[in-house]
Write a structure and sequence with these properties.
By secondary structure, the protein is α/β, with parallel strands linked by helices. The chain has three domains: 132 residues, Rossmann fold (3-Layer(aba) Sandwich); 165 residues, P-loop containing nucleotide triphosphate hydrolases (Rossmann fold), CATH 3.40.50.300; 127 residues, Helicase, Ruva Protein, domain 3 (Orthogonal Bundle). It is 46% helix and 13% strand. α4 links the parallel β4 and β5. The relative contact order is 0.07. The chain binds adenosine-5'-triphosphate. The site of adenosine-5'-triphosphate has 17 residues, from α7 and α15.
Length: 455
């Protein structure tokens, strides 16, 4: 990121003090104002990152009304600015009021420039971190509607989607569970000439065989017990649009034959019906299973495979997409913060490193779920790796931990998380894995502020 000149605005009506501050803080570009009006003019013109604001401003040098007004105006005009208010000795009430209004910190006179300098330096540091976070958030690529992708492998997928979208080719999306097959299918539909018509999705693995047939092909009245009226199936409902068959690898054999016929002849027959109904539907299929192996095992028809795989697009797992996990985490974070009205300001830098280092076996779905949960549960201003249930990324060992206690604590927490995860959240099983009693696990969970379901 481009480094910016660091500008400190000092709002102080005492010329002696102003002079003293000028000598002490010449490492920053200094701006001076004696009153609220001058301060706002500087704010607008020079956008200082940090403001040192004396609350006792003229015309009421003994009161704080004008100073508070200045603070409120700065907050409104440039909310990212870090304002350090300076109050009279012992004036804690007004200092706290100012903090409540959004001031970054306060300092009580008389001025000790060394201590004040530390506060100012830290304010610039925080400002830089927040600015970095803001810049990263804006940096995110959204190459397709609803799709976040920044990595080269994923951008290649996006280009493939863009190429096949305008055609009518039956497309097979392969990828691990949660990697974004449905998101891509929707994007493909959205880019096609069928975008105005419906996108109808059905999960072949989630519906029992008997039901799946009538769900897909519809049924005539009286076709079976409970078939009280003629009902069109998903294929018909997708007329003019796109049909998304998720988990196609789980489709039962008898239905595979019926689906093949539909794909070859583009007509369907409802269950219990005799009439052939022509349908104009584009088909996208997806599976996380290895169809080749299923074919070899006799569980998937090879002729159907060739029909559905006119074009095959492989969606890489999240761990194979450098940079995508952090890019997505930022978007999911923003969304969750808005949805849950959280006061969190951003993701800590070490959190981004931990996200990038994690394996994400559950892919994007897991990431989205963890960020959402962490935003609800977190206490601090920045989301930490621990909030996400992640271990901080290795840093090559150059930096020592705070002390041995922290190293032990971290290791303990890590082992606890792993065992709970391996035990699917079952405390008794986790206790067995760690060789401790159930109460001991509960004690540890309390100690590490872990909710019973945070495994
Ligand atoms: N590239 C992406 N950009 C934004 N969100 C994504 C992306 N990929 C996945 N997601 C989100 O992750 C979640 C899982 O995605 P999706 O349902 O598309 O995965 P899938 O591969 O179809 O999963 P399954 O195999 O379990 O059906 C969804 O909430 C989706 O919105």
């Amino acid at each position: 990121m481009k480094t910016q000149t660091e500008r400190l605005l000092v709002v102080e009506d005492d010329p002696g003090l102003a002079r003293q501050l000028r000598w002490s803080f010449d490492r920053y570009e200094l701006l001076f104002a004696e009153d609220r009006e001058g301060a706002i003019t500087h704010l607008r013109r020079n956008e200082p990152q940090v403001v040192l604001l004396d609350l006792g401003l003229p015309p009421e040098a003994d009161g704080v009304g004008e100073g508070m007004n200045a603070l409120a105006e700065i907050q409104r005009l440039a909310p990212g600015t870090k304002v350090i208010v300076v109050t009279g000795n012992g004036d804690e009430d007004n200092a706290l009021r100012a903090i409540g209004m959004g001031a970054y910190d306060f300092y009580q006179k008389p001025v000790d420039t060394e201590i004040l300098g530390l506060i100012i330096d830290r304010a610039f540091h925080i400002w830089r971190l927040e600015a970095q976070n803001r810049a990263l958030r804006q940096d995110i690529a959204r190459p397709l509607e609803g799709v976040i992708a920044t990595s080269e492998p994923m951008l290649r997928v996006v280009r493939q989607i863009e190429k096949v979208a305008p055609t009518n080719a039956t497309t097979l999306l392969l990828g691990d569970t949660g990697s974004g097959k449905e998101v891509m299918a929707r994007a493909l539909h959205g880019l096609s000439s069928r975008a105005e018509a419906r996108f109808v999705a059905i999960n072949c693995a989630a519906i029992p065989e008997q039901l799946l047939e009538s769900e897909l092909f519809g049924y005539e009245k009286g076709a079976f017990t409970g078939a009280n009226r003629q009902t069109p199936g998903k294929i018909e409902l997708a007329e003019g649009g796109t049909l998304f068959l998720d988990e196609i690898g789980d489709m039962p054999g008898q239905l595979q034959a019926k689906l093949l016929r539909f794909l070859q002849e583009r007509v369907i027959e409802r269950v219990g019906g005799r009439q052939e109904i022509p349908v104009d539907v584009r088909v996208i299929c997806a599976t996380h299973r290895n169809l080749r192996e299923l074919i070899d095992a006799g569980d998937f028809r090879e002729d159907l495979y060739y029909r559905i795989a006119e074009i095959t697009i492989l969606i890489p797992s999240l761990r194979e997409r450098p940079g995508d996990a952090t890019a997505m985490a930022k978007v999911f974070f923003e969304r969750a913060v808005t949805e849950h009205q959280s006061g969190l300001r951003g993701l800590a830098p070490e959190t981004l490193a931990a996200i990038e280092a994690h394996d994400w076996p559950g892919n994007v779905r897991e990431l989205e779920h963890r960020v959402n949960r962490a935003v609800i549960m977190a206490d601090g201003k920045l989301l930490t790796p621990e909030d996400l249930g992640l271990v901080p990324a290795e840093d090559g060992g150059e930096q020592l931990e705070l002390n041995l206690r922290k190293v032990r604590d971290d290791a303990e927490r890590g082992a606890l998380e792993k065992s709970l995860k391996a035990a699917d959240g079952n405390v008794s099983q986790a206790a067995r894995l760690l060789g401790v009693s159930r109460p001991a696990i509960y004690d540890l969970m309390r100690k590490h502020h872990m909710a019973p379901d945070s495994a």
